[in-house]
Amino acid sequence: MEAIRCGKCNRKLGEGEYTRLNIKCPRCGTLNQLKAIEPPKCAPRAPNTQEASHGTNL
Ligand SMILES: [Zn+2]
Questions:
Q1: Distance of CA 31 from the midpoint of ligand 1 (Å)
Q2: What distances in angstroms separate CA 45 from CA 25, 40, 41, 42, 49, one per listed residue?
Q3: Which residues have their alpha-adjacent CB atom under 5 A from ion ligand 1?
């Protein structure tokens, strides 16, 4: 199961499985509109590659 949290205050609203869900946070009143399938968070960059953008020399 997947925890459902408020997108604003991060309060846990419940848990379960859903395809689409509208749920109003009782704490801050934000209407959270949730969709089930999130895109996978796989970074296309190789982790071993040195980041040249951070040119900090210590
Ligand atoms: Zn909230």
A1: 8
A2: 36, 14, 12, 9, 8
A3: 6, 8-9, 11, 25, 27-28, 30
